[in-house]
Amino acid sequence: GAALPAALAAAGIAVGLTYPSRDLIVRAATPPGATGRVYGFVYSGLDVGSFATPVFYGWLMDHSLPHGVFYAIFGFTLLAMFTVLQLPGRRPAAIQRI
Predict the structure, then answer these.
(1) 44 and 68 co-located in one domain
(2) First and final CA of the chain: distance in angstroms?
(3) Residue 84 falls within a domain, yes or no?
């Protein structure tokens, strides 16, 4: 009986531990004066993705395409990798000083 609450608590803690580093990465990647706009864009995208992906994956499952969930994840991952590879190379100032 206590395993489920313990597992959910551990998952919540693990997710919560990633937030500060994620925020620092976003802050380090933003140009001066644009931090608020970038945060708004990034977190709006996270919210839309958190809402839309379960709906999309549920639709795939309802149409007897459970393997489609994995293909979709693969496709989204490739798209994210391609997007990152298109960014111009730039090092944060803190790293350049080392």
Answers:
(1) yes
(2) 52
(3) yes
The three-point CA angle 4-10-12 to 5° equals: 100
Instruction: Let me know if residue 94 belongs to a domain.
Output: no
Residue 97 lies in a domain: no
In one-letter notation, the amino acid at residue 20 is P
- Give every CB contact of residue 42 below 8 A, 6+ residues apart in sequence: 26
Residue type, 69: V
Q: What is the mean pLDDT of each run of 10 residues along the chain (98 residues)?
A: 95 91 85 89 91 96 96 96 82 59
pLDDT of residue 56: 97
The helix or strand, by DSSP H or E, that contains position 65, with its residue range, turns out to be none
Cα 98 from Cα 90, distance rounded (Å)? 15
- Residue 30 neighbours by CB under 8 Å, 6+ apart: 38, 39
Beta-carbon contacts of 94 under 8 Å, excluding residues fewer than 6 positions away, are 28
pLDDT, residue 93, reads 63
The confidence score (pLDDT) of residue 91 equals 65
